[in-house]
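Input sequence (201 aa), recorded before submission:
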Amino acid sequence: MQLILVRCGRAEAPAGTLRGQADLPLAVDGFTAMQRLATHWSGAAPRFLFCSDQRRALQSAQVLAGRFALEPLADARLRELDLGRWNGLNFAQAAAAAPQDWQCWNADWQHHAPPEGETYAQLQARVRTWLDAVFGTAAHDDRVLAVTHEGSIRALLCHALGLELPQARTLRVDCASVSAIAFRGGRFEVSYLNCPQFLSD
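Predicted structure, token format:
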């Protein structure tokens, strides 16, 4: 099975916004980037198209859905990290609202949750339940496409590469970029990551 991970296009939000699970729409240039990705896609179409149920991911998935004539399957397990009361705030607002939590979270974002939010370890556990479900239903030669978020993709890549969570931030995942994971012979194989287009095998 090949899993193709696409980060959704850029959201409409001021610089410095903690996007998290805020209900943000796709920006104009984010929509354009997704259109460009769809137009230059090569190779066979995926059998399934999954996406986060957050607005910017749904709108991104709709662009690819038109390219492949597939109905996106929205799944809340593919959401971005839940920043709780910080969703949609900027850095200064979050730090002022809960200074101690802000300090603890920046020091240990893997295990310390924002107020009413989740830890990065919890995010990884959440996306892994989705991955396990996909492996349980997809055939070995299926191509599965998932449109999701930076944090979710990094968590899945860490799992596939056997990396510790602190290394997640060493993986660059740009908006409207593509990464691919294959599962062969009982092990994961990262084919490529952070590419501006899908690379056909």
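Checked by second reader. The first strand starts at residue 2 and ends at 7.
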